Hints:
The structure is a homodimer.
Chain A: H1 13-26, H2 39-46, H3 50-62, E1 66-69, E2 73-76, E3 104-105, H4 118-128, H5 143-157, E4 166-169, H6 172-183, E5 188-193, H7 197-206, E6 209-216, E7 219-220, E8 229-232, H8 246-259, E9 262-266, H9 282-286, E10 291-296, E11 308-311, H10 314-323, H11 333-344, H12 347-373, E12 379-381, E13 388-392, H13 399-408, E14 411-412, E15 414-415, E16 428-432, H14 438-452
Parallel strand pairs in A: 3-14, 5-6, 5-8, 8-9, 9-10
Antiparallel strand pairs in A: 1-2, 4-11, 6-7, 10-11, 12-13, 13-16, 15-16
Helix pairs in contact in A: 1-3, 2-3, 4-11, 5-11, 6-7, 12-14
Amino acid sequence: MELSILFTGKSPKYIEIYQEVKHLILHKKLLAHEQLPSKRALAQTLTISVHTVKEAYDQLLTEGYIYSKERAGYFIAPFEIDWLQQKQQPASMPEVVTANNIQFDFNNGHVDNEAFPYTTWYKLIKKHFMKDHLTISPWQGEDTLRLEIARYVERSRGVTCEASQVFIYSGTQSQFLALCHFFGPKACVGLEEPGFKRIRAVLQQCGLSTMAIPVDHAGVTIPQKNIHLLYTTPAHQFPLGMIMTMERRAALLHWASLSQAYIIEDDYDAEFRYKGLPIPSLAKLDQLQHVIYFGTFSKTLLPSLRISYMVLPTSLVASFTAFYLEQKSVVSKVDQLVLADFMAQGLFDKHLAKMRTIYRKKQQALLTAISVHFSAEFQVIGEKSGLHIVIKLPNRLSEARAIQLAEEVGIHVYPCATSYQHKTSEAMVIIGYGGLTLQQINDGIARLASVWQ
Amino acid sequence: MELSILFTGKSPKYIEIYQEVKHLILHKKLLAHEQLPSKRALAQTLTISVHTVKEAYDQLLTEGYIYSKERAGYFIAPFEIDWLQQKQQPASMPEVVTANNIQFDFNNGHVDNEAFPYTTWYKLIKKHFMKDHLTISPWQGEDTLRLEIARYVERSRGVTCEASQVFIYSGTQSQFLALCHFFGPKACVGLEEPGFKRIRAVLQQCGLSTMAIPVDHAGVTIPQKNIHLLYTTPAHQFPLGMIMTMERRAALLHWASLSQAYIIEDDYDAEFRYKGLPIPSLAKLDQLQHVIYFGTFSKTLLPSLRISYMVLPTSLVASFTAFYLEQKSVVSKVDQLVLADFMAQGLFDKHLAKMRTIYRKKQQALLTAISVHFSAEFQVIGEKSGLHIVIKLPNRLSEARAIQLAEEVGIHVYPCATSYQHKTSEAMVIIGYGGLTLQQINDGIARLASVWQ
């Protein structure tokens, strides 16, 4: 066989040979087991060096387009290619999100973005982003950060623990998922009804059986059936905002003890409490025996950081660690070191104190605006702590209609119905205020009233 | 009942009252339904203002220690507390990792940490760490980063795709887990044997059934049984390092097409190829019909960043997106924006070119050192690309013994046996060289030879 190759000069010669032979194979001009010219012969034909031909043939060999037989030469490899030629459907274009005109977003996941200590943070990044810190963190998280978190949950929430009980994740969902897998595919998980829909979604994703446990005025009620894990938000129930009473806390811990179940206490915004002292955590009462404690920096620092943590009872640490032996860290090492340093220097506590004042003012502005612009048929609930409240709507106004009316005047408020696993007759909306200024809060509420009243 | 409270002056008076009453309740000095003094009466007894007493009682009410009856007064709430008093076992101390004397760590997860463009990266962080960028990213990742990755995989690996097909995760394990859940609890997943143990660990964690698919000289073999998803590393098999032949690629794609299965192509270190042209990706041949493409920045930039991505066939995008509707992002927004900008400015390609030269030199140094210090009974395999090679040990030296001997002289090398799901008689060690200098590579290999030969 002769190969005639017209060099274009656009690539090195060996690449042009390689590409041409490949082209001929893929277009069935060269067939399986056909012999190629020897290196020497092709070099003479093309008046190039044998070395150049060798480079081209080596590449074809490596990719398996050709094979060689000792003392015989080079041959085209056999493989089916017909079906490779099928053309793919043109990819559908991504949906274009129509630019909307939202001016006031009462999103409960937003935080105040003026107050963040940018300069300090940036300096800490510069300090820690250096060559000794480029290997991956241990999967449980950086030791320094785990220690600072252990100290923090003790002083702020009375949860006495050691660094070895603290595990760092990239969000509440990912630590919840890790825990579910640890409890195994047969675990039954209880969720508050209504509750945090993103936690419910994780359970649906991993196919675990779940049970909706109703919430009453005192918090989540005592599960009547056999569940292994109960997810609850005692300090500020999501979304309704009530604080679990002491009586209920005691009863719940008693239930966990009797039924050998574990309670996940998600303390997602317990740092922000505006009336009275902080509510003691369930984990403190229980001394971390049946309670797994969840915390996050999404409310206290930045949601965009994606850093959360859980504190396990000591009885679970060894088996959890063994279960995740081959796990890799899911959080940037530099971010972990920066955060640990920020906490160790006392800057986190200082930031929290500052934010508490800011959010207290914002919440006051929100409640004042609501009392000024709305009649008593709109009832505010869940206002004792956290970064959102709930408004109960009067009978004449459905949840969907209220949200739609708000959108029409450039305001995002959020549904409660999606927090329910089952249907609900209650019409309520969630109003977050962390990301808006005092002025925006007042103007937004006034505008809401103009369409809802 | 009379309450006598001795103020210590260490806290505000209302807190001292609150604490004392709580203490009395928890120690059963005050019993369920017992009536507390009226606010007025207690104020008179203690000669303090009624307002102070009210603050204390309000806190006790909020926490549920007491309840109030209209026109009757305040009463101790009923709850069981006996079992709350149980003392927790003292937490076991975390295991102290004994300081070892490792001087040369041939870890295949390490990268060169001198060459990273620190200054450029800081500047980009400073540019993007600002108040407009503090909300959470879309769960799929930042649009700008998805677009840059789509462009990159097209120009570097021939994978034609749109930004909407790209999904950002915090590591290969997390994206693999997300995919497994998407395929459902009944999916059967094929893994290379030997293969990446951390992927096998994910399957064990989520309880999916797996099948070990043997690897031969041409890459992973064609699965004989019904599996839904096959995880493979065609460009540089992990750990053995062979490149999948064109014939096998075609056969594998044919199999996927016939059996309606999907292939996960993990291109974890395909960027680093030292001989010949880059090997075309399976995703390119397939035009992303049955192939799900995995990439990572752990080798090309930094393992500590925790940023990886997957590219889905267009046919899966809508259902995958619907499945993860309630998912939140798991990667820092600022890191995503910085990386996108780094790529858009052409700095990533520049960095890759630089790293290719550095790693080529390191690999050359490694191979030279091995050929100088070791006899032919030690065989090197998998050296055509990537950041690690494998050494086949002679019969007289077991894998465990080789690793132990190395440790004794301050060298970490890594086992191959753990990459096998079933037992193997092969004795091999994995030698990574990305994180060591040329000098360290040479000295480390010389020292290894001194104990292995």
